[in-house]
Amino acid sequence: MSKHVIVIGGGISGLAAAHRLTELSRTGSLELRVTLLEASDRLGGVIATERTDDLLLELGPDSYITDKPAALRLCERLGLTDRLIAPQHATGLKLYTVHRGRLEPLPEGFLLMAPTRVGSVLRSPLFSWAGKLRMGLEPLIPRRSGDGDESLASFVRRRLGREVLERVAQPLIGGIYASDPEHLSLAATMPRFPEMERNQGSVILGSRQAQKRRAQSTSETGARWSLFVSIDGGMEVLVQSIEETLGPGVVRLGEAVGELSWDADADRWRVATGRNGSDPGSDELEADAVICTLPASAAANALKTLDSELANELKAIPFSSTATVNLAYRRSDIAHPLDGYGFVVPHVEGRKIMACTFSSVKYPDRAPEDITLLRCFVGGTLQPHLLDQPDESMEAQVHDDLTALLGISGEPILRRTTRYPDCMPQYNVGHLARVERIDSELKHFPTLVLAGKSYRGVGIADCITSGETAAETIVENFC
User: Fold this and answer.
1) How many domains does the chain have?
2) 280 touches 38 (CB < 8 A)
3) What is the CATH number of the domain that holds 31?
4) pTM of the model
5) Contact 447, 290 (CB under 8 A)
6) Is residue 88 situated within a structural domain?
């Protein structure tokens, strides 16, 4: 007798869960029927690619990291290996940061927030001589006593000084999470750095050792892929490939989920649903197991009558909103050489954008040679008010920033803004302890698993890992 598993949410976590369930059903002795419910009219969540004339726009993420192998392995199983592409000119381009209104290259050898090459730091105008001296004293800073969580800002100030926090760590790491580093949990976001402090007594020394290990591993294994890879045709190819493998009848679009309830007598889950905008309680589905990949806040609403403590913990995870603004210009209108992948913007610079990717420089076939495609990010925890304005105003402000920083003399020939309300979970101090409490409550419901970026990682590879692990957990509990 087959088991019915409902996957709630059609973002990459839900797609990975559904795909893994179908894989396990085909290769194992357990027969599974999978249903994936997605409230919107499309799959992929924040992963979205759009073709406009000769331009390829990534409206969400444009790549995934290969250090975490789940995404790479999934692409291999989907037969996408030949379509994976690395950034162009992988060793010759820079990453810039804004300093005093100008673009300055980030010193070579920075491992996120820790310098590994003394010479490049000494030559950099990003830091004052006092800041460079403070950075150089880092190996002499005593280890922190105690095992409690610490904010990113507290850690960086304590070990490397205020300038590294404001000019490197905040725009690089805070930008990844669209977060305020004063609240961002170091243990939940960058656990390697407190581990370096504990084991080596220094993040500079630990970062140097980590870089040497990576270089040695790449040399010995002949690593095929760069740290980041994308897909020929855009990241939405990954979404489409998964959907194709799921087969007919699995995906149900336009189906919103209301509350989940457990029928102990029937030993089954009941999922209230509503199709095409109708009341989510107008219909009901039954399942032997449920994987919920909704954002924590939405999951809280679905589970509030099932377990109020679980719902309260989920509701306590805050979210920030962001927008992606794609702008295209004639290359002849941009004075900057664009000899980099893009730039990040420290909050202290007072700009409207958090970061900008030189999309048509970073990956091939994004735009014709005479056109430059730029992708900018706006909003986040530090500037939520910027999302209150209409698209036209936001695009004009982004254009003004780009004009000042890149020396642009013309107007954009394309503007495309995509908003992502409440899209980014905030891993604030204490986040991992909250996730442990959520896991403890879930032990009462072995055939209910929560997955997605609300819990243990926000990147594509993290979300795929989360979805696949949820599928494997369900199958193990059935067996």
Assistant:
1) 3
2) no
3) 3.50.50.60
4) 0.93
5) yes
6) no
